[in-house]
């Protein structure tokens, strides 16, 4: 366990250790993580996830989309007990795992089975302050799924790799169409983790209505339609 773990998790460190132990014991056999990930659980997964709390306002309502093994949602919930956190995951076996972890660690976290784009999930989640996603989908698709869950002014935090800026340039039009503002890149955990976490931040703005996206037809001098 890295020395920075105590600083990142604070009073939640014992729960972080228990979560790491659960992942180490069951993660590979249940298809949650690859065999090579066991030796780098703290740096690559727990700390990498928890440090995005730097971008999350105090007391925010947060939804983690495609939570999978519970990343980044579970470490974020452990590090930031002030957050109201919901995990959304479509696969039954992963929902079972997430529910077990939440119960085992006695976390005040809700688990919902479904996809973010489903109407029933959107209705149950409501409008939240922050949506997180890690290794779920390209930015264009992610924006279409996540931005509708946000209140106006809320933020999507997408954990990305080295190609984040290329992805932003490629998917800018799709992000805007989904109701997002200009995407920005932030590095979280600088000085705390060996490789800072790259996060693409997109604010939910008021989407352009269909009427605003169409040119008005110029009817001055237009020829009348023939009868019949």
TrEMBL record:
Coiled coil: none annotated. Its main location: cytoplasm. GO terms for cellular component: cytosol. Residues 213-228 have a biased composition (Basic residues). S-adenosyl-L-methionine binds at residues 66, 71, 116-117, 134. It is found in: Cytoplasm. The keyword Methyltransferase applies. Its EC number is 2.1.1.-. GO terms for molecular function: rRNA (guanine-N7-)-methyltransferase activity. Keywords: Cytoplasm, Methyltransferase, rRNA processing, S-adenosyl-L-methionine, Transferase. SUPFAM superfamilies: S-adenosyl-L-methionine-dependent methyltransferases (SSF53335). Residues 208-228 are annotated as: Disordered. Pfam families: GidB. Belongs to the methyltransferase superfamily. RNA methyltransferase RsmG family. Specifically methylates the N7 position of a guanine in 16S rRNA. HAMAP family: 16SrRNA_methyltr_G. This is Ribosomal RNA small subunit methyltransferase G.
């Amino acid at each position: 366990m890295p020395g920075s773990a105590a600083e990142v998790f604070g009073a939640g460190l014992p729960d972080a250790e228990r979560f790491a132990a659960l992942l180490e014991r069951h993660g590979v056999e249940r298809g949650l993580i690859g065999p090579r990930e066991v030796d780098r659980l703290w740096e690559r997964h727990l700390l990498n996830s928890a440090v995005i709390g730097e971008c999350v306002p105090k007391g925010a309502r947060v939804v983690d989309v495609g939570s999978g093994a519970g990343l980044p949602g579970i470490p974020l919930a452990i590090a930031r007990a002030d957050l109201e956190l919901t995990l959304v995951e479509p696969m039954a076996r992963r929902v079972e795992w997430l529910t077990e972890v939440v119960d085992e660690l006695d976390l005040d976290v809700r688990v919902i089975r479904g996809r973010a784009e489903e109407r029933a999930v959107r209705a149950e989640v409501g409008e939240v302050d922050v949506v997180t996603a890690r290794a779920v989908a390209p930015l264009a698709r992610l924006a279409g799924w996540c931005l509708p869950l946000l209140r106006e002014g809320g933020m999507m935090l997408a954990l990305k790799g080295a190609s984040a800026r290329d992805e932003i340039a490629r998917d800018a039009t799709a992000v805007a169409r989904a109701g997002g503002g200009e995407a920005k890149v932030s590095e979280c955990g600088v000085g705390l983790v060996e490789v800072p976490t790259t996060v693409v931040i997109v604010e939910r703005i008021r989407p352009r209505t269909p009427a605003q996206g169409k040119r008005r037809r110029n009817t001055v001098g237009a020829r009348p339609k023939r009868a019949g």
